[in-house]
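Quick one before lunch.
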Amino acid sequence: MKFYYFDVYGRGEPVRLLLTHAKAEWEDVRVTGPTWQEFKADKDKCKYGQIPVLERDGKYYSQSLAILRYVSGLHGYYPEDLELRFQADELTDLIAEDFAMTIIKKVFFVKDEEEKKQEWNKLLEEHFPKHFGFLEEQLKGNSSHEFLIGDSYTMPDFVLLSTYISHINHPNRKDDLQPILENYPLLKAYYEARTADFKDYLDNLPECSG
Ligand SMILES: N[C@@H](CCC(=O)N[C@@H](CS)C(=O)NCC(=O)O)C(=O)O
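Model of the glutathione complex:
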């Protein structure tokens, strides 16, 4: 398998984490400049002119969350039970779209520095406490408290872990976010335990802006 994405965490990191945890055979292809223009123009590989794209056995797959579901199914992280599968989908959409993409849209895509600062402060006051609260409740309601669903990794765990890399422990953002996390003890313990599972990966992780 080859996973094509820019040299950022963004929409690609959950898939990278999942394939790493699964010990899958895969190549992390970080597309840049001229390679990107060439790849984007190739409609057989990059159907929608956007990445992430997954290549497997000569086929190309698009859309980050569809790819995530696909590799989750391949590697046993997508529950068979319909109710649990719904929970996995629900949490994945909540974390990937409502929690993480909102941060990107409200802050990273804003060009004006003053406006960016104001939006970031608003996220610190409202967005992070709200989403940390949702996640704390989910962990509280799960008998193991160690994972989002059941007692082992499922798809949304990789999405949540990727928020730690992109935001909560990111050198540019952790001083603002870690004090807020102190109010959510189960979530804090979750991040500590889960990142410990990825120690080697995290020690060798390329530093990206987000
Ligand atoms: N809904 C798509 C969105 C993909 C997307 O917006 N990709 C961005 C990078 S995060 C991209 O390829 N941007 C370059 C471009 O559109 O030319 C997904 O989730 O995969």
